[in-house]
């Protein structure tokens, strides 16, 4: 269902109802751009830490507009053994609400716009009929404006001659207008004296040249009761205006407050944009983001995010799924050993035809994402004894995937963890190299020609990470470079150490934030659901090979793009790395305790298995 | 005529022909926004100097996209005594040309987008079918890329195994692909040996999972002649690709190179955007802008810009034209004492109906601007003896209006002069006030309540210009504020002095630029046209009152908007000021000599009057 400004109000209750009744929700966003800064390859360095990636996206991607939001709700019908889905495709545009409302500026990236144009994206619909929105601060300010106006109208007195939001002040009446004003004063005095007349229409006072429609002031005499009635009418109207201005943000609030599982595909940018556009500016660092997410998502229940791209890249899927781009994933999941999910659109909702539909319409992408989730979740059920055909969104089987957002093009860190400190793989085969800005990749290949296959991850014009195939080679490379003049080589550990030193002051603040996080955690345990701390690390997966700490899988080469520019996907080879927290992060990790997991309500899940699937901390 | 990407190439010669044959051109641009920074009121302070205004627009307005460009060419038919016009409405979009071409990011301002959306602006046409463009530097780079590619293909040798623009390098062939590669080598050797076979189709080498259309390499044996023929073909194709990429910039070059009079309405932003988008980043200061304009516009002839908003705001028009917004101006100029111009659209070109057409379509706005110019120019002819009905674009009567761009909402400086130093009115009734950021306009009225009517021009949150009605009050105000703690008052002269001190270093550079300007001027005098220095300052206008140095006119309150946001037009009252260059600017002015004016070709103009109309330096 297409939702635009003109039909938003009529359909809002339908949207909220769909959210409330759903077993899970799938979302997707379309943006006016991806990266406003360095090239995508610099934006997504293969050795970014989650914190670094977050900082880059925050800095270079938040000025774009999320202008289409797809929401697809899925509700399982146990009798018919199928899902009933309702799909909504919202067009979003920050149409200024009034003169004093925020005049949002947003950036467009030509390549993204061109890409969407080629998909038939309807920009006219966005700009002419997009649903407005306010973030929380803007909503608060607008509410205050109304309150102030009301208190002024209720006779705050001395200031009430100033129209709100103008810089007008009392002026001396110009000579040529004195006669007009005097006449008005006379007329009003007449009205007050005369008991018969109830109202008075003043002459229009716009100049004769004007082409405006004639507007004039009507002065009415009213009693107290009538006055109150009119005031209440006005207040109701103002409340409606306020609701209209908050607009699409109400849908986002409904999603957050529902406590439902929210599915996305490669959803980090979607989550960041949603917070940034409809809640508040993104916090300084990942720890604070986590805090904020729990603030938003935990407001009523414990909410969870699940990224289907991460799920598809993880055991037991990664061995049987070659390409995790949304389009390819959807196709793959229709084939053996998976089964296409049974999903029907609800009555009155249009259905999508997956064989012909265009990707990159947010509503459709959300729908496909939901299908992928169902197929993968159900596949997990086949490992139970006895096997299950249907695995619900409340099943423990999928809990290991909660709140872990896929990290695009990071070689050895699979996800950004919203429930703990950054994963810190041991990068003992990685070098940090600085060199003159004239150097190209071929110069680096030249330099390291003695070491066999290497991988280059550009940081900027004059530096890059170079990963060697053997950690033992690292010290040799550093030693041989000792007297080099044009370039400098250091180990990854040395590089990190230096960066840490620079950020000493900053870290103090971060630790404090973790403490606050802990405090928050203790507080939220008082929700209606009984909580229990658990930690998924046992690797008792049956049917495929055991996943060890050192097991790796390459980042897939993709034909489609999941919100990053197409075709720029570098072809990473298998890398050798090992996830052991660095000394410093160990301390942080120690302080951190797992956020509680929601316990499954009795009866909805019968398996006795407890800790089955592991999401590893490295690829 | 609507010109989009798909019909641009077919119509380019038509566009160039129209420019070449025209007597004058009218242009207009539509942008994705106006001001990306402070509020419009801060962007257009009533006491901005031209330099300050330029800096503000440069800083806060250039990140927007000029995405519709209107061009209307007017050619006078002496036999029929009417103009023949050709109107073009170009949709512009920086569609990335290839992987390595610039990926332009531009800002959209919701209020501007919303305004255009309400006018029925077709965003889909812009984004799906806008004509691309390159600025001069980008064009140069692309040309270099092609040259490099060519020289590589011509056997530069050792590097030719590297595909251009990739970071690929020779790699060790993986074990599982060795067989495939060996087979290819064998096949090629076979082809070279065998005289019968002319070409060889290699097997596709994409993996089996791929959904790509099958692509494969064909190896052909060719002799030297065939090789050359193919190379020439390729070069011609590359040249065409290059032309396509330069795209709309070719139209702008044609306009600049034509040397024709270019008309615009409130055209400062149009001129700035045109330079910024299709030539090069805007220069640091106004002097350098002037230099650049003369560089661009003078490349073949002496070109001239004329701003109809400035013209309509100046004698002899300002007394009889109340509202200089484009829509109102067009209406006014149909009435006595003006006469509607006789203009017909050329064969094959659609005509506009001014009574029903939508404003803010760039092609239409350009057309209307041209109509306004013709009416006003012809009106000037009525003051000649004998009077003339038709005043051509080459007439001396309009020369006083050349290269002076209207300054929106500046109280006492009418225009930005592209032919000389900033106008510097004496602002001896103006105070500069700093105060706590909580202050509102009413606090300032309060503070100056003893001085009668004042005018407040906000600079930022904590400072404003306040103009008093009497210059004599200025010192009193400064004196009484001496011991104030929360605010500070200084005279305008003191304020300027302090700013000058801060910019001491910078100014040196500006003076050097003026010297270069002078050098340039001497050089351009070698053009085919005989030049003559003249200076319009005699005020011998007949028929209306004499315009003295102290005569003022209020800035009109407008119903329409000329590229600034609607309705925010402050209602300026008549101000009292006097244009006398400040001590410092006198020195600069001394150094500066008038840029030559093009002498009118013999026979095209018969009036004996020489210096009739003056464009004053202050309102």
UniProtKB/TrEMBL annotation, chains A, B:
The molecular function GO annotations come to: metal ion binding; poly(A)-specific ribonuclease activity; RNA binding
EC supergroup of this enzyme = hydrolase
Polar residues: compositionally biased ranges: 545-558
Q: Which residues form the Poly(A)-specific ribonuclease RNA-binding domain?
A: 420-497
Location relative to the cell? Cytoplasm; Nucleus
User: Which cellular component terms (GO) are annotated to the entry?
Assistant: cytoplasm; nucleus
Residue ranges the record marks as coiled coil: 178-242
Q: What are the recorded Gene Ontology BP terms?
A: nuclear-transcribed mRNA poly(A) tail shortening; priRNA 3'-end processing; siRNA 3'-end processing
Q: Where is the composition biased (Basic residues)?
A: 587-596
Q: Which Gene3D superfamilies match?
A: 3.30.70.330, R3H-like domain, Ribonuclease H-like superfamily/Ribonuclease H
UniProt record similarity statement? Belongs to the CAF1 family.
Question: What is the name of the protein in this document?
Answer: Poly(A)-specific ribonuclease PARN
Q: Which gene encodes it?
A: PARN
């Amino acid at each position: 269902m297409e939702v635009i400004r003109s039909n938003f109000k009529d359909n809002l209750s339908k949207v909220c109802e769909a959210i409330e009744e759903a077993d899970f929700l799938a979302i997707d966003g379309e943006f006016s751009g991806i990266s406003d800064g360095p090239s995508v390859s610099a934006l997504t360095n293969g050795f970014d830490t989650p914190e670094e990636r977050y900082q880059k996206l925050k800095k270079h991607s938040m000025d774009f507009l999320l202008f289409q939001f797809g929401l697809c709700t899925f509700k399982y019908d146990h009798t018919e053994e199928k899902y009933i889905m309702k799909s909504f495709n919202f067009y979003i545009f920050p149409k200024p609400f009034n003169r004093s409302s925020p005049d949002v500026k947003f950036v467009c990236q030509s390549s993204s716009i061109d890409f969407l144009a080629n998909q038939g994206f309807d920009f006219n619909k966005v700009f002419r009929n997009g649903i407005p929105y306010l973030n929380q601060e803007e909503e608060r300010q607008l509410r205050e404006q109304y309150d102030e106006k009301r208190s002024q109208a209720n006779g705050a007195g001395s200031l009430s001659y100033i129209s709100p939001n103008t810089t007008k002040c009392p002026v001396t009446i110009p000579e040529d207008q004195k006669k007009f004003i005097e006449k008005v004063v006379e007329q009003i005095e007449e009205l007050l004296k005369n008991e018969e007349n109830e109202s008075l229409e003043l002459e229009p006072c716009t100049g004769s040249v004007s082409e405006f429609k004639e507007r004039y002031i009507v002065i009415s005499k009213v009693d107290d009761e009538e006055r109150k009635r009119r005031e209440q009418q006005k207040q109701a109207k103002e409340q409606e205006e306020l609701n209209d201005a908050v607009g699409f943000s109400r849908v986002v609030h409904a999603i957050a407050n529902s406590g439902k599982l929210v599915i996305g595909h490669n959803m980090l940018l979607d989550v960041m944009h949603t917070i940034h556009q409809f809640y508040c500016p993104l916090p300084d660092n990942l720890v604070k983001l986590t805090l904020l997410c729990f603030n938003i998502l935990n407001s009523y229940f414990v909410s969870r995010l699940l990224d289907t791209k991460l799920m598809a890249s993880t055991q037991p899927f990664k061995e049987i799924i070659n390409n995790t781009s949304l389009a390819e994933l959807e196709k793959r999941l229709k084939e053996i050993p998976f089964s296409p999910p049974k999903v029907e659109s609800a009555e009155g909702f249009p259905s999508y035809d997956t064989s012909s539909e265009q990707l990159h319409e947010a509503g459709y992408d959300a729908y496909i994402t939901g299908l992928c989730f169902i197929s993968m979740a159900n596949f997990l059920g086949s490992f139970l004894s006895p096997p299950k055909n249907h695995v619900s969104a409340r099943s423990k089987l999928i809990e290991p995937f909660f709140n872990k957002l896929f990290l695009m093009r990071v070689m050895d860190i699979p996800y950004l963890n919203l429930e703990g400190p950054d994963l810190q793989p041991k990068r003992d085969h990685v070098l940090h190299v600085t060199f003159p800005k004239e150097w190209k990749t071929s110069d680096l290949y030249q330099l390291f020609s003695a070491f066999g296959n290497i991988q280059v991850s550009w940081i900027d014009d004059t530096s890059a990470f170079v990963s060697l195939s053997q950690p033992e080679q690292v010290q040799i490379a550093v030693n041989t470079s000792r007297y080099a003049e044009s370039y400098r080589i250091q180990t990854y550990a040395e590089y990190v150490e230096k960066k840490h030193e620079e950020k000493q002051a900053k870290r103090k603040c971060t630790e404090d934030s973790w403490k606050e996080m802990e405090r928050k955690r203790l507080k939220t345990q008082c929700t209606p659901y009984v909580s229990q701390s658990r930690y998924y690390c046992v690797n008792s997966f049956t049917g495929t090979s055991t996943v060890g700490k050192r097991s790796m899988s390459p980042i897939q080469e993709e034909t489609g793009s999941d919100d990053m520019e197409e075709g720029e996907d570098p072809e990473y080879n298998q890398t050798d790395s090992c996830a052991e927290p660095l000394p410093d992060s160990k301390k942080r990790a120690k302080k951190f305790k797992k956020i509680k997991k929601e316990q499954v309500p009795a009866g909805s899940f019968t398996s006795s298995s407890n800790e089955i699937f592991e999401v590893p901390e490295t690829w």
